[in-house]
Amino acid sequence: TILLMSSLAWAGSTTVVVGLSSGAGGGSACAGACNTAAAYEEWTSSTTDLGIGTAAGNYYCGFFWTPSENKCFCRVTFCITKAAGDISGKTFVVEFWTTTGTSLNEKLGSTTGVAGNNSWSGTTQAFDFSTHQQATASTTYAVTITMNEVDASNNAKIYLDGSGTWANANAARWNSDGSI
Fold it and tell me: Whose CA is closest to 155, among 16, 17, 46, 61?
């Protein structure tokens, strides 16, 4: 089993993919229940501040990812900070997408929503998919976080490592239509 993570590095904070494994065709690697308690590795580097839902161009925040081998995962964690106002009524969701160029294309999976918390301050928050998400080697995907609305007065932010977020990944932000 190979477990990846990306850094949401601010003072050692991280984005973690848990239960990530490799597999020749992905099929057997994705079998069985999601292992959300598996170990992971960490990397840290410089950061990119991404405000979730702060403006139309930040409807989705996250990163492009091109795995070098087939992978499966079922949990992603982000370190989140309340940026403005009251986020207790907001629901945050992580989504896994195919991409076309720089645009989000087909949504492959979505986590259960997590209620915003006004005490978030570099808080590590787990987002669980109900089934394994399968990624094929040499194919570019996007992993995004959204609160499914734009609200400049009530929002949160994440910090992503622009060059080391999972292996072969780059930070990005998208409009609600999936375009950059």
Answer: 61
Backbone angles phi, psi at 161, to 5 degrees: -75, 120
The pLDDT > 70 percentage for the chain reads 68
The length of the chain, given as a count of residues: 180
Q: Which residues contact 177 (CB under 8 A, 6 or more apart)?
A: none
| Distance of alpha carbon 92 from alpha carbon 127, whole angstroms | 9
Per-residue pLDDT at 38: 52
- Spatial CA neighbour of 73 closest among 13, 8, 140, 1: 1
Provide the token pair at 27. Answer: 């099929």
pTM of the predicted model as reported, rounded to 2 decimal places: 0.80
Question: pLDDT by residue (tens digit) across 29-72?
Answer: 576 666 665 533 333 334 567 899 999 999 999 888 888 888 88
Look at residue 160 in the predicted model and tell me its pLDDT: 64
62 φψ region: left (φ > 0), alpha (ψ -120 to 50), beta (else)? left
Buried b (16+ CB within 10 A) or exposed e, 85-109: bebeebebbbbbbbbeeeebeeeeb
Is residue 57 classed as helix, strand or coil in its secondary structure?
helix
Give the closest residue to 167 by CA, choosing from 8, 26, 5, 10. Answer: 5
**Mean pLDDT of the region 144-166:** 79
- Local structure of 167: helix, strand or coil: coil
What is the DSSP secondary structure assignment for residue 68, as one 8-state letter? S
